[in-house]
Amino acid sequence: MKNFIKDIRGIIFDCDGVIIDSAADMAEAVNVTLEHFGLKRIDEQTAVSFVGNGAKKLIERSLACSLETKSSLEPERIDAVLRWYVSYYAEHALERTVLYPGFAYLIERLMIKGIKMAVVSNKPQNITHDILSYFDIDEYFDAIIGPEQLKNMKPDPEGLQQALEAMNKSVGNLKHISKDETLMVGDSAVDVQAGHNFGCRTCAVTKGLGDKEKLLAEKADIIVGYAGELISFF
What we know:
two-stranded antiparallel sheet, elongated, phosphoglycolate phosphatase, HAD-like_hydrolase_sf, alpha/beta, EC 3.1.3.18, phosphoglycolate phosphatase activity, about 40% helix, hydrolase
């Protein structure tokens, strides 16, 4: 067991690849969007590999792949496709999406132990909130933060700072949670980078959606398959 675990009082989770397996729904939304604009579909695994840096990057990469071009695309075209994708995905985000094994049990036990929790995702905040609400777990988190609330997305630590501030508002008369007492849990390199940039502890989830090789290269403090496996540390 890692020695610092006993000191953890706040945990920040990424969403896709950590809390939910949303690969199938996101890939299908990407492909329906491409078809709507008269473009060819791309491989599901390829579409999933584009996830992790926000919806705009997902669409930029998917368009480039479908068009088989490395040239820059017109911003107006990207924005139009992005708007259609976000609207479609918001309506179809829960067709095949599921919670990862053990996650609901994990956060229930963490709550009982008094550990505060928040979500920081590069996914649109309203969609993240709706999904967590659908699975009846939104109330476990002191904050659900998306890119709309930030100037800079992960790996910038701005979202983690907001999450820590929200968690500290709920600690009552207890001593505020410090960065050293905070754990960032993510499945992609940008999640662990955000944790390093923020100065908190980090956990890499290897069975999520992110590139495993890039994730492990960031040398997180803890490595697990699924986030639910964190229960063994607490």
